[in-house]
Amino acid sequence: MITNEEALELVAKIDDLKNKINPKIPRMPIKYKSKAITIRKSKISPDFASKTVLTDSTWQYVEIYLRSKNQDDALFYWEQARNFYESTKSLSLVSKPLTAYYCFLNAAKALLEVKGLGYDLAHGVSGKREDGHINIINESVRFQPAGVVAALGRYLGENIQDGGEKFNLKDIFYNIPYIHRAFKLTYSNMAELFIPIISPRFVHDKIRQKAWLEIKLEPEHSNKTTLGRLIGYSLDKRYDNSFEYTLRRNKQFDWVAPHNNPTTESIYKLNAYHEKIRKELRYIYSPNDLWYVKRKDLKNHIINKSTLTLTIGAMHRLSELSRYNPQT
């Protein structure tokens, strides 16, 4: 008979021997033009072959791009957006929502102009206070079926109901990832909606000619509870998941790439796969890459809209409060 400590030590030695015989080699990334393809921040039609451009001014970079493409109308709206942004920085906290909203609205118009998408000049969003005491749950935002915000939503692949959609401001805030942690500090009884992930990338099985999304969880989230919340993902047993989990998206796509030269059909399927996956992922602008998966196992208070449309909808209502009820 051996003691429990001796048994655990023996198991550890066996595992170590297994790893030496069959090391956990990371899966190979898919490549395009000799460059590993990763998740892009762009949701629609990302350019996988493009190189990263470093700039200290997004405003100036986009301006240069618009000028090079002779996008005069888009450039006008972009410059308007920048002017409202600069004005916002010098205003009081109560006044900021008004100019910030018009910054967002003009930036959205610039995008629609560049993409050649027609849109109604109406804003496409409205708000009101429902009956009851002053509370963000009584502040409603209605996304209209026509207007700038509606056109933005359609471009991002969102369903726009004929009669519009109404949500309260509390639920909208809950669904915005970059304020979610602060929101949770105030409303601690509501479930965590966004799960942080590390190193999202596309990997493939060369033999089966299949590719999929691979993500890692932080050590504190690498447990069965978190795994159960990530619908459509499973543990990749190729890796040593004792410290941090490596997960694979169950949905795959065909990836035929002899000598790392993917076929046209493979690139098409990558684009379609990426567009679907990006609807599940959220990115927070930061010096570090901050990626999150939005949970799909929750039913209450969930809004199936992008961060862009939710932000502009929320800011519209805040701008109304800034104008008409500044002491609220």
From TrEMBL:
**Entries under InterPro entries matching the protein:** YaaC-like
| The protein, known as | Uncharacterized protein
Instruction: Tell me what organism the protein belongs to.
Output: Pseudomonas fragi
Its taxonomic placement starts with: Bacteria, Pseudomonadati, Pseudomonadota, Gammaproteobacteria, Pseudomonadales
